[in-house]
Amino acid sequence: MPDSFVRPGRRSHGGGFDVALDYFEEGISSGRLTNGDKLPSERDLATQLGVSRGAVREAIRMLQALGILVSETGRGNGTRVESSPSNAIGRILRLQLALSLVSFSDLTETRVALERATSAAAARQRRPEPLVRAQKVLDRMSDASDQDTFNELDTDFHIALAEAGGNGLMSDLTVAIREAVHSPIKSAELAVADWTGTRRQLVDDHVAMLQAVKAGDAEQAARLTEKHIRSAYATLLHE
């Protein structure tokens, strides 16, 4: 591990927690800390930064919740930088939705705007591997009779389409929003009286979307994606 890796960052005027947080922020921003880098022990970091181990531990836990650090126990393991932005954003959106600080309607409108863009990008880029995965998922959706399995496959399909467009941030945001609305959509699917008919319509929507993407028709792919999201929202949430 190079000496520069453990060099403290800029000193904060706040308490030990702020000093530790500034160290991580400065290290990541400057490139000293990159994906996969293993951090020094809490004891070593506390000594180097001149703060308590508790302050270092608190900063690490916050960054774990934000999907920036991961910790593993056992010999040879420890804490390392490993970004998981979709998990962090999804967690925040789920909590905001639960607290009614973000409405399901607002999330749906955001999803429409985002997935119109990702479907259009997928039609323009048509990255082979994600499209092959989307087709395999779609084949399984046609045979999925229970709502739990269908919901998981539905999420996988939309993520694959987002990845087919080649924009990593859009993919992460798609994952985050899908995770945020997973529970209410699942509950709504379980409450649908005619699940067989609803499932058939949802599968048909996905077939049409994927066909438009494969044909390279970005405008049609975006239009069908919006139609699908709004139709599913109206059917499942009765709005």
From TrEMBL:
<dbReference type="GO" id="GO:0003677">
    <property type="term" value="F:DNA binding"/>
</dbReference>
<dbReference type="GO" id="GO:0003700">
    <property type="term" value="F:DNA-binding transcription factor activity"/>
</dbReference>
<keyword id="KW-0805">Transcription regulation</keyword>
<dbReference type="Pfam" id="PF00392">
    <property type="entry name" value="GntR"/>
</dbReference>
<keyword id="KW-0238">DNA-binding</keyword>
<keyword id="KW-0804">Transcription</keyword>
<protein>
    <submittedName>
        <fullName>L-lactate utilization operon repressor</fullName>
    </submittedName>
</protein>
<dbReference type="InterPro" id="IPR036388">
    <property type="entry name" value="WH-like_DNA-bd_sf"/>
</dbReference>
<feature type="domain" description="HTH gntR-type">
    <location>
        <begin position="14"/>
        <end position="84"/>
    </location>
</feature>
<dbReference type="InterPro" id="IPR000524">
    <property type="entry name" value="Tscrpt_reg_HTH_GntR"/>
</dbReference>
<dbReference type="InterPro" id="IPR036390">
    <property type="entry name" value="WH_DNA-bd_sf"/>
</dbReference>
<dbReference type="InterPro" id="IPR008920">
    <property type="entry name" value="TF_FadR/GntR_C"/>
</dbReference>
<dbReference type="InterPro" id="IPR011711">
    <property type="entry name" value="GntR_C"/>
</dbReference>
<dbReference type="Pfam" id="PF07729">
    <property type="entry name" value="FCD"/>
</dbReference>
